[in-house]
Amino acid sequence: MPSRPRRIQLAARLATAMALLTGCSAVGGIGGDSADTELSVMANTTDRTSMRAVVEAFHRAHPGIRVTVRYADTNTLQEELPRRLRGGDAPDVFTVWPGNGNPASVVALEREDFLEVLTLRRFGGRIPPGIRPVTDTDLGTYVVPVTFSAIGAIYSSETLETIGGTTPGTYSDLLQLCDTARRNGKVLFALGNATPWVTQLVDYALVATTVYADDPDFDAQMEYGRRTFARSGWRQAMAKYLEMRDHGCFSPDPLGTTYEEAVKQVADGRAVGVVQVAGTLPDLRAAAPGMHFRMTALPATDDPGATRMPGAVSAAYGLNKDTPHRRAALAFIDFLGSERGQNLYNKSGATLPALPNDSYSVDPAVAEVARHQREGTTVPFMDQRWPNSEVQQAHFAQVRALFAGTSDIDRALAAMDGAYH
Predict the structure, then answer these.
(1) What single string gives the DSSP state of each residue in 138-172?
(2) CA distance 421 to 416
(3) Do 143 and 118 meet the contact criterion of CB atoms below 8 Å apart?
(4) What CA–CA distance (Å, rounded) separates 346 from 310?
(5) Which stretches of 105-244 are assigned E, i.e. beta strand?
(6) CA-based nearest residue to 294, from 315, 272, 313, 310
(7) Cα(2)–Cα(134) distance, rounded to whole angstroms?
């Protein structure tokens, strides 16, 4: 429960937001800002093409508002944004990381009272329940989520057909498919654990089911100290990760295989697929232009109805609470949350609108991701709910140690619990 002063602040800001929702406009639907309003936006360099399309369309709808975007890489954004917000010279609208775990995340910035509450904006009612844990805090909604990505198994349709296999619906089917791939001189999944961030993906894909299917409030219980990694479905997920390794499901030398080499193994048909983020699809298509790919959830049990998929907001934007151009900034935020804004932003990549709508043409490769998103059977990427970045680093290190044979599951989970607390 927020403190009384914080509740009073929130009530005042909600009243302001309500007034802005009903306010009349002077220029392009935006009252209170001059006809030559200059709006500043800060975004990740990876979103340059998407943001450019949005800005051009927004300017056509609001010719009196000029939007200037500055792009920066992840490290710069996470270091610079909090500093500029404290110094009073931050942009009007800026990238905010969903959930927690870095200085420019929703939780961290809201805690310092830097973000405008967006609970009453029209897009707020369209935020799927599965992503609210990383867009909202106890006090309300503080970002407009724009893109939605996922982690799962990406299969080459051609290679899968070559071995006479079909996408598995259960964990037993998955192990059988590993056998089928091996009998045909291939591995089911290329695994590039020489690249640190790749180490986490199989665990994440399995944990979505082994933890969250039965315990959807696991993250909140972790925060309250009522759960631990060691006494949860994380143990089953790690055991299955190692079982898949021992069953021959992965590349012969995962610790000697990089992300780039894993992509090559799929492209040249040595591997049937890879467990990766949806953002890997453009790399796979560039490496193998003639191949067709399909992304599915990685089953962790023999109950298909229990299968969950890690799906998360990847790009999101917040509004500077102290912006002098609040009405214009809210108009831009609202455009990002509109069907047109969402569709324009996601058109160039292998992502989905974070706010699903029927007018978006879904890439067939991620049709199952879209289904899980619609049905609410996704869970946030696990690190988005962790209190610090050390947990993820501990996870990277422990998976590598497990594959090197220098650790075991007990020690791995103990290290993650230690980093969490």
Answers:
(1) TTEE--EE-EEEEEEEEEEHHHHHHTT----SSHH
(2) 9
(3) yes
(4) 19
(5) 136-137, 140-141, 144-145, 147-156, 187-190
(6) 272
(7) 18
Among residues 67, 105, 206, 133, the alpha carbon closest in space to that of 380 is found at: 133
Chain centroid to Cα 317, Å, comes to: 13
Rounded Cα distance between 363 and 349, Å, is 9
Q: Give the list of residues 6+ apart from residue 69 with CB closer than 8 angstroms, or none.
A: 41, 42, 43, 51, 52, 55
Please answer whether residues 416 and 398 qualify as being in contact, where contact means their C-beta atoms are separated by less than 8 angstroms.
Answer: yes
CB contact set of 111 (below 8 Å; sequence gap of 6+):
none
List b or e across 337-362, with b for residues whose CB sees 16 or more CB atoms inside 10 angstroms.
bbbebbbbbbeebbbbbbbbeeebeb
Pairing relationship of beta strands 93-95 and 37-44 according to DSSP bridges: parallel
**Spatial distance between the Cα atoms of 267 and 292, rounded to a whole number of angstroms:** 10
Query: How crowded is residue 322: how many other Cβ atoms within 10 Å of its Cβ?
Result: 13
- Residue tagged 């869970």 (tokens): 379
Tell me the C-alpha distance between 64 and 388, whole Å: 42
CA distances from 153 to 134, 172, 201, 236, 297 (A): 23, 15, 10, 19, 6
Distance set, CA 106 to CA 131, 166, 186, 306 (Å): 13, 40, 43, 29
Q: Tens place of pLDDT for every residue, the chain, 421 residues? A: 444 445 445 544 544 444 444 443 333 344 445 557 999 999 998 788 889 999 999 999 999 999 999 999 887 898 999 999 999 999 999 999 998 878 899 999 999 999 999 999 999 999 988 788 889 998 899 999 999 999 999 999 999 999 999 999 999 999 999 999 999 999 999 999 999 989 999 999 999 999 999 999 999 999 999 999 999 999 999 999 999 999 999 999 999 999 999 999 999 999 999 999 998 898 899 999 999 999 999 999 999 999 999 998 989 999 999 999 999 999 999 999 999 999 999 987 778 999 999 999 999 999 999 999 888 899 989 988 898 878 989 999 999 999 999 999 999 999 999 999 9
Give the helix/strand (H/E) hosting 311.
strand 309-313
